[in-house]
Specification:
- The complex is a heterodimer.
- Chain A is an alpha/beta fold.
- Among the domains of chain A are: 181 residues, no CATH class; 183 residues, no CATH class.
- Helix content of chain A is 23%, strand content 12%.
- Chain A has a seven-stranded parallel sheet with strand order 3-5-4-8-9-10-15, sandwiched between helices.
- The longest helix of chain A has 21 residues.
- Chain B is mostly beta strands.
- Chain B folds into two domains: 124 residues, Immunoglobulin-like, CATH 2.60.40; 200 residues, no CATH class.
- In chain B, a hairpin with a 2-residue loop joins β7 and β8.
- The N terminus of chain B is likely disordered.
- The chains are: A alpha/beta, B mainly beta.
- Chains A and B meet through α7 and α13 of A and α1, β2, β3, β5 and β16 of B.
């Protein structure tokens, strides 16, 4: 078979070379209906095959399941001279891979588990048996806000793209409950925090399920918040994979390297109307991000932090984008981004505990309840007129916090109170090791003080093009070399908000001809085409 | 019904939180490299209008605007926006490199208008003048064969010099010194392993008049497809480049080589007679990335362009005429 037989998949810019006269672009080349009695191949096309050393490609689309062979028949003067069968088994793409539905893999008291419409299929796929693979197993985990039905589509697309990049590995798609509080009216979930928690709660089940999958070499690919699931599964539940490709990871960099700390992520405004000075002026020991430091390292509460939550996962490859919009670094130092899709990851970190989430909570748009974060604990308010203890209460000025002891902060944090008051008591250490408690704290209450790994090179894994890959400028090293894209759709280049940026979901939202290099790279690094 | 109403109220509340739309005006002046105004150039701009809910993180909807420059090369965009910024770009102009694009940030609101009112943004478009064939390559990840030893790299062959590769000349000479690694545990609750290392990479040359110099990020072409000076400098080359990366404790961030530059110009195969360089080849390269975390020596990668014509300092590359043939897809360079 010629090397370029699959060029039609990647040739985004060709204007000719396809169709019966080889004068059309691949996406608009002639399509010919084939009837039950077959169709005669175009003589022009056959002549070109003859002139091309006997090579030509016919792309056929199946519209129904069948195991009947495709027959190529040779006729002359009304007589069939011979025929060649191509044995086929055509069925839905989901018959080519496994499907792990972990949406109901955990329970939370007081919450309803999601309904499962598409149960796990862990058996051998009927139309891509394990014996047809190279013995490797690749597992794909989607991100935030992907309902069950949509996850089927995303996973099918992920499989097809890897397959088109010549992966011969077994494939397993993972659907998890990352869309809690999904509103059919809004067509979305506004509850990122509950779904961060769910990511942690899904991790043990993922680790267990992956251990049961066949394949001597396992590679996991995760998108966005799916990286919280996978990172936790590896670190907390011992999930064993040979390589881990983190794409657009919606995880704070400090979770992988505790030395990374960026005070630009401190919310500057909350409290400003009350204290006139805002959070940056308060001693850091009063911040929710530092509460864990009040405890020694043997106390479970000292684990209530993003710092080192996962550590430097040795086999992690960070596919980030300097052109991110969702995970984009904040627009300025201690500058709260405007609300919208752009900067939304930074925005939710910098707004933890604040009034915005009270509104969402009151309106029942989210299941999570705000706590800690960048809000003040009214327990520490003092009378506005010290001479009159009954006067209105106000927040303390920074200078009025010096006499608050560490013991007092352990019992009652200066930031907004935790929803779980047991954390402040004698059993707080044990309480903090409860997976759900810790996950809820991390999700809703503890802001990151670092940017997202999915928007930045995170050097603890290794340096550029070794373990960090900038999808917006792969290998550029300062020149204007493009990233993994092969051009972009024309309409994108006309939109000044997009241009050549590799956006958060371009892995799946942009057609394969434009982003196939990323999939090629995953296949190459994962050794999926052995 | 009550729930639906709540949703609606919530939705409207969120929209309200996004902010009120303010008027804005911004003017672009498009000039060519010689400073002359360029008429009939289309400017595109976008201002944030609203957030639309949907899967993932929903979608930001922008008001898309265009304006065409007049005889003075000026084009003014008038609009309104909820956010204090306007994204802009220049539509492709035949015969010119893809122009700049970016985002302008307003500073404040006065009288329901974003301020400063009608700021001027100057855009320089660069003509495609003389793109030439070059040896251009992304090296991919090269494992440095040894520590503490000078190892050459042949830029025209695209490989380590013999005996480590097929290269015949040591255009660049890499030498890595590194202290023994250590692994320590963090003192925190999680007790994670942290690798401590200290490595210094020196890049030097075979000939005394070969050398390297950084390309400044401070130039007017940033954002342009071709973003560096057209010619490599005649002078100012250093005989070596030293980069160090290290981590001394678990609490310390990894110290990376300085990366705030566009890359480097370099000169190799320089021959001097009577105090003057009579022959040399010039080129440009991106940052030299070297990773010591995943290798007992170092993994090195960089992208380089070498003008094959002796003494020509032209740095304008024609991506369709790479002198390397049969490069892998991942090794090919497509930028000028």
């Amino acid at each position: 078979m010629p090397d370029n037989a699959f060029d039609y998949l990647t040739n985004a810019t060709a204007t000719a070379g396809y169709g019966v006269n080889a004068d059309e672009a691949p996406q608009s080349a002639d399509t010919i209906a084939v009837s039950l009695s077959g169709t005669k191949l175009d003589t022009n096309w056959l002549a070109q095959v003859q002139n091309n050393g006997g090579y030509g490609v016919v792309l056929l689309e199946g519209c129904a399941t069948t195991t009947q062979p495709l027959m190529l028949e040779i006729w002359r003067n009304g007589q069939k001279l011979g025929s060649v069968p191509l044995y086929l088994s055509i069925s839905g793409v989901e018959q080519m891979y496994r499907w792990l539905n972990l949406r109901d893999s955990f329970t939370v008291s007081g919450e309803t588990q999601p309904t499962i419409n598409y149960p796990t299929r862990s058996g051998q796929p009927s139309n891509f048996p394990d014996s047809a693979s190279d013995g490797r197993q690749v597992i794909y985990v989607h991100g935030f806000n992907v309902p069950e039905q949509s996850s089927r589509a995303e996973i099918a697309e992920a499989f097809k793209r890897l397959y088109q990049s010549r992966s011969k590995a077994m494939f397993t798609g993972v659907s998890w409950y990352g869309d809690q509080a999904y509103s059919g009216l809004l067509g979305t979930s506004l509850d990122y925090y509950s779904n961060v928690r769910n990511a942690f709660l899904t991790a043990p089940a993922l680790a267990s399920a992956v251990a049961s999958l066949p394949g001597a070499h396992k590679v996991v690919i995760a998108h966005s918040l799916g990286n919280m699931v996978v990172s936790s599964a590896i670190v907390d539940s011992g999930m064993s994979v040979e390589k881990y490709f983190a794409i657009d990871a919606a995880v704070a960099m400090e979770a992988y390297d505790s030395s990374i700390k960026d005070l630009g992520m401190v919310n500057p405004d909350v409290g400003a109307g009350v204290t006139f000075q805002g959070w940056p002026n308060y001693d850091q020991r009063l911040w929710s991000t530092e509460w864990y430091q009040l405890f020694d390292s043997g106390d479970g509460r000292s684990g209530l932090t993003w710092r080192n939550r996962f550590g430097a996962i040795p086999n992690l490859y960070n596919f980030y984008s300097s052109g991110e919009e969702v995970l984009e670094n904040p627009p300025g130092y201690q500058q709260l981004p405007s609300l919208g899709k752009e900067w939304i990851w930074v925005s939710q970190e910098m707004r933890k505990g604040t009034g915005l989430f009270d509104i969402l909570d009151v309106l029942h748009l989210v299941d999570s309840h705000p706590e800690a974060g960048w809000a003040l604990n009214t327990d520490w308010y003092i009378p506005s007129d010290p001479a009159h203890p009954g006067s209105n209460l106000r927040a303390r000025y920074p200078s009025e916090t010096n006499d608050i002891s560490d013991d007092a902060l352990r019992a009652d944090p200066f930031c907004r109170a935790f929803n779980d008051s047991n954390l402040n008591g004698a059993g707080g250490s044990a309480e903090a090791t409860n997976i759900q408690v810790r996950a809820e704290m991390l999700g809703a209450g503890l802001p990151a003080l670092s940017h997202a790994a999915g928007a930045n090179s995170t050097s603890v894994f290794g340096l550029e093009n070794v373990k960090n890959f900038n999808m917006s400028a792969h290998g550029s090293g300062g020149t204007q070399d493009p990233g993994f894209e092969t051009g972009w759709p024309a309409e994108r280049l006309q939109d000044p908000t997009k241009l050549t940026r590799w956006l958060h979901s371009d892995l799946k939202d942009v057609a394969y001809p434009f982003n196939h290099k990323l999939h090629d790279k995953l296949v190459e690094l994962g050794g999926l085409n052995q | 019904m009550k729930t639906k109403k709540l949703f609606l109220v919530g939705y409207l509340s969120i929209l309200t939180l996004i902010g009120y739309s303010q008027e804005l005006q911004i003017t672009f002046k498009v000039i060519n490299e010689a400073g002359k105004p360029m008429p009939n150039v289309t400017l595109r701009a976008a201002t944030f209008e609203r957030w639309k809910s949907g899967e993932g993180f929903g979608e930001d909807i922008y008001k898309q605007l265009t304006a065409v420059t007049d005889l003075k090369g000026m084009a003014t965009i008038e609009s309104s926006g909820h956010h204090p910024d306007v994204s802009w770009s220049v539509a492709p102009v035949s015969g010119y490199y893809r122009g700049g694009g970016g985002r302008y940030w307003f500073k404040s609101i006065e009288a329901e208008k974003w301020q400063p009112w009608n700021p001027m943004v100057e855009v320089v478009l660069r003509p495609i003048l003389n793109p030439i064939p070059m040896y251009a390559k992304r090296t991919g990840n090269l494992t440095l064969p040894q520590v503490g030893k000078s190892i050459g790299y042949d830029l025209m062959i695209g490989d380590w010099a013999m005996p480590y590769g097929k290269g015949l000349k040591s255009d660049l000479i890499f030498r890595l010194e590194r202290k023994p690694d250590r692994t320590v545990k963090t003192a925190d609750y999680y007790k994670r392993d942290v690798k401590l290392f200290d490595a210094t990479l020196t890049v030097s040359f075979s000939n005394p008049d070969d050398g390297i110099q950084a390309i400044s990020t401070n130039n007017e072409y940033i954002g342009c497809e071709f973003d560096i000076p057209r010619s490599a400098p005649e002078d100012g080359y250093a005989t070596n480049l030293t980069e160090r990366t290290y981590r001394e404790s678990a609490d310390q961030q990894i110290v990376l080589p300085v990366e705030e530059r566009l890359g480097y110009f370099y000169r190799v195969r320089a021959v001097k007679q009577d105090g003057k360089i009579v022959s040399a080849r010039y080129g440009k390269m991106g940052n030299i990335n070297f990773d010591v975390i995943n290798s007992p020596t170092a993994i090195i990668n960089f992208t380089y362009y070498l003008n094959p014509e002796p003494n020509s300092r032209n740095m304008e590359f024609d991506p369709k005429r790479d002198l390397f043939k049969n490069l892998k897809d991942s090794e090919q360079v497509s930028a000028p």
